[in-house]
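Regression test case RT-17, inverse folding.

Input:
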């Protein structure tokens, strides 16, 4: 049977838990409202008053969570980075062979970045204009992504599927290559996106000597 003191501790714990959940829910809502306004109107054209009014919470509540528009903008970037990270981590948890996992990882990488850009306007949207802050947050994700690639390449090496001299450097090159192909991928048509990914698979798993004929200079299949 619970003593009076233990019962009091449990009640206090649940009260604090509920408060923290409410705080987290409100903060998440404010960030999402701000993100939508930034995507629609641009960061420079959106004010704290706009965010407060659109959220229905008022300036006092908004300033309780964020001291400035710049702070809430950074929170938006971090949230977008977290969405990407979660998607990639979900691939890492899949129980499939290393080659298929890398293929899935590449596809998810391109698609989740495309979705992030489209959700926030387009490649030229004001949301992405503060390249310094975007790259600062992106750098952390790049490092995590490289670690994931090292893990998949190492697993494939151990199973005898790959022959790689320097796994870490290979992972770094692969991550940079994927990053460099993001903008072309986003600009492609749906059909060409699929072909571009297939070309990446071909190049990754068969190398320069193993590439068959029938590809043009940008990696898309030529007409037969």
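Golden output:
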């Amino acid at each position: 049977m619970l003593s009076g003191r233990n019962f009091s501790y449990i009640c206090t714990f649940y009260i604090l838990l509920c408060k923290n959940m409410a705080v987290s829910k409100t903060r998440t809502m404010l960030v999402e409202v701000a993100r939508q306004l930034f995507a629609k109107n641009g960061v420079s054209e959106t004010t704290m008053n706009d965010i407060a009014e659109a959220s229905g919470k008022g300036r006092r509540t908004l300033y309780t969570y964020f001291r400035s528009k710049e702070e809430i903008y950074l929170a938006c970037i971090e949230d977008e980075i977290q969405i990407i990270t979660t998607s990639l981590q979900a691939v890492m948890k899949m129980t499939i062979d290393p080659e298929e996992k890398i293929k899935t990882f590449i596809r998810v990488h391109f698609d989740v970045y495309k979705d992030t850009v489209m959700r926030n306007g387009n490649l030229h949207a004001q949301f992405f204009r503060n390249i310094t802050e975007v790259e600062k947050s992106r750098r952390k994700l790049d490092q995590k992504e490289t670690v994931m690639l090292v893990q998949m390449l190492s697993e494939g090496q151990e199973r005898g599927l790959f022959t790689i001299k320097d796994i870490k450097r290979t992972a770094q090159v692969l991550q940079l290559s994927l990053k460099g192909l993001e903008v072309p991928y986003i600009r492609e048509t749906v059909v060409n996106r699929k072909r571009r990914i297939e070309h990446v698979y071909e190049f990754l798993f068969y190398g320069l000597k193993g590439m068959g004929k029938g590809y043009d200079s940008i990696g898309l299949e030529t007409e037969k």
